[in-house]
Amino acid sequence: MSASRNRHIVISLDFGTTYSGAAWAMADSPHEHYLVNQWPGKPPSSLNGLTSEKVPTEIAFEYNESGPTCFWGSEIPESMPRHQWIKLALDPTQKGPALHLSSVDHRGAPPPYHALPEDLVTNYLHCIHDHLMRVLESKIGAAFGAMTWEYVVTVPAIWTDAAKAKTNSCAQKAGLGKISSTRMISEPEAAAIHALQSSNPRALSVGDAIVLCDAGGGTVDLITFSIIELKPRLRLKEEAPGSGALCGSTFLNHRFQEFLKKKLSSDPGWGRDTLEEALQRFETVAKRTFDGDLGTEFTIPVPGICDNEDLGVYRGKIKISGRDMESIFHPILKQVLNLVEGQIGTSSERVSAVFLVGGFGQSPYLRKFIQERISPDIEVIQVVNGWTAVVRGALIKVVSEIAPSLETISVESRIARKHYGFVITLPFDPTYHDHRKK
Predict the structure, then answer these.
(1) Host H or E run for residue 410
(2) In contact, 376 and 360? CB cutoff 8 Å
(3) C-alpha to C-alpha distance for 118 and 134, rounded to whole angstroms
(4) What is the DSSP letter of 184?
(5) Residue 16 and residue 58: Cα distance in Å, rounded?
(6) Is Cytoplasm among the key words of this record (predicted)?
C-alpha cells in the first residue's frame, strides 16, 4: 500500500429516511472501524450535544433580518417546525401508503415553496459533512489536515438511476467530494455484508440463499444472495433484484395516532399535549417491546383526559391491550411479510435464513410474525448491531477494497435491473421466413 493511501480515510454515510448514521476507518488500520456517536445538540454546533448511534434526518430554518439560520438533527429546538422525510423527495416514483407528515409529527413543516427538494437534501448533507470533519479532526488531531478522505453513501435498492444521480449531485454540492469519487452501495447489500460477518457463516452451506430485510423508519428494503464459495473468501451471487416499499415503523406511529384519535378526540381535554406524550411512550416503549402476546397491556399517558371508565382512562393514563396493539401492527407487518415472501419465491436456490436489520428490524413482533408464516426450515435472525448494519457494512466493503488482505465478502454477480434490445426490419425471404409474417 502506498504512503498516500496510508494517510487516507474512508467515511460511510447511511443517509436514512428518518435517521442517519456514519462510520469511518483509516486505510493504515483497516481492521479498526469507528461508529460516529457524537452529534450536535443544544446549543447548536456543539460537538457533544447528543450521544447516539444515529441522528434524526431533519432540518429546519429560522428566518430573521440577517437571513436564515439552519438547524439540523438533534439540535433543532423541540417546538420548531422541521422538514422530515427529505430523502424520499429524491425519488418521487416510489409510492407508498397515503401519509401526511403532519399526521405523524405536528412539527413537520410543508415543503418549501422557494426551493427544490434537492436543496433540503444538499443542506442536510452539508451539515452532516461539516460535523463529521470536526469529529475526525478532534479524533486524529493536526495530522488530519494533511489526510485525504472519501465517502461511500448508501441508497435504497429500489431507487431509480435518476434518484441515485440526484443523491450524487447533492453529495457533491454539499462538499462530500466529486461525483466521480463518491461511492454508492445499496442499503440491503451493505447490511448483508455486515450481517454475514457478524453472524456465524458455518451454519450456511454453498448453494444456500439468504434474504436480507432492512426494515427502517420509512422504507423496508430487501435483497437475496446465494453462497457460491465459503473459503478462502465468502463469495455471493445476487438471486433477485432488490425490492422494497414504504412500510417502515413510522407507519405504526401513524396507525397508533389514528387509533388514539378515534378513541379520545371527542373528550374536551383532548389536545396536542395529549398526543405528544402518548406518541412518545408508544415510540420508546410499546412499539419496541410488543412481541405479539395478546395478554400484554401497555399504560400510555394521556394528559388532559379526565377519568372515564368507558374509555378506560384513569389518572391521566389509558391501558392499550395486546389485541389493540395487534390491530395497529398487523397491516404493516403484512406488507413486510409480502416483501419477504416475494424474495423467497424469486430465489432459484433454497433460502435458509432471513436476516432482519434496521430499527424496525429489531421489533420482536416483526420477527415472530414472519417466522410463524414462512417455512419452518427458514430461520429468521435479528442481526447484532442491526440498527447500524447498513453503515457498518458499507464501510467494510470499501475498506476491504483498499486493503485486499482484509477478510471480507464479495458479490460476484448481480441480476440485471433492465434489458436492452433493438428493433430491426428485414426484407421478407419466402425461402426462409414464415409466410404469415410477410
Answers:
(1) strand 409-413
(2) no
(3) 24
(4) E
(5) 10
(6) no
How far is Cα 234 from Cα 230, in angstroms, rounded to an integer? 4
- Contact call for residues 300 and 286 (beta carbons, < 8 A): yes
Neighbours of 365 (CB within 10 A): 19
β-sheet bridge partners, residue 301: 317
> For 108, which DSSP code?
B
Query: DSSP of 52-66, one letter per residue?
Result: -S-EE-EEEEEEETT
Q: How many CB atoms lie within 10 A of CB 388?
A: 23
- Is the pLDDT higher at 161 or at 370? 370
Spatial contact of 99 and 254, defined as CB atoms under 8 Å apart: yes
Instruction: Enter the DSSP assignment of 309.
Output: T
pLDDT tens for each residue of 141-182: 888 888 989 999 999 888 888 999 999 999 999 999 875 568
Q: Are 239 and 347 in contact (CB under 8 A)?
A: yes
Q: For the chain, which domains are there? A: 3-185 (3.30.420.40), 200-382 (3.30.420.40)
Nearest Cα residue to 97 out of 15, 263, 188, 218: 218
Give pTM, 2 decimals: 0.85
* Phi, then psi, of 267 in degrees rounded to 5: -75, 135
| E runs forming strands in 230-261 | 234-245
**Per-residue pLDDT tens over the stretch 198-232:** 876 557 888 889 999 999 998 899 999 998 987 77
Nearest residue to 72 (alpha-carbon basis) of 57, 86, 53, 85: 57
201 HSE (CA, 13 A, CB side)? 24
β partners of residue 21: 14
DSSP string, 118-170: HHHHHHHHHHHHHHHHHHHHHHH-GGGGG-EEEEEEEE-TT--HHHHHHHHHH
- Short-list 391, 355, 411, 426, CA closest to 200: 355
**Residue 142 CB-half CA count within 13 A:** 0
Judge residue 88's burial from the number of C-beta atoms within 10 Å of its C-beta, 0-12 exposed, 13-18 middle, 19 or more buried.
middle
φ, ψ of residue 166 in degrees (nearest 5) = -65, -40
Residue given cell 434537492 in the structure block: 118
DSSP characters over 4-52: HHHTEEEEEEE--SSEEEEEEEETTSTT-EEE--EE--SSTT-TTSEE-
Inter-CA distances, 109 with 105, 115, 124, 161, 182, Å: 9, 13, 15, 28, 30
Length of the chain: 438
CA–CA separation, 180 and 210 (whole Å):
32
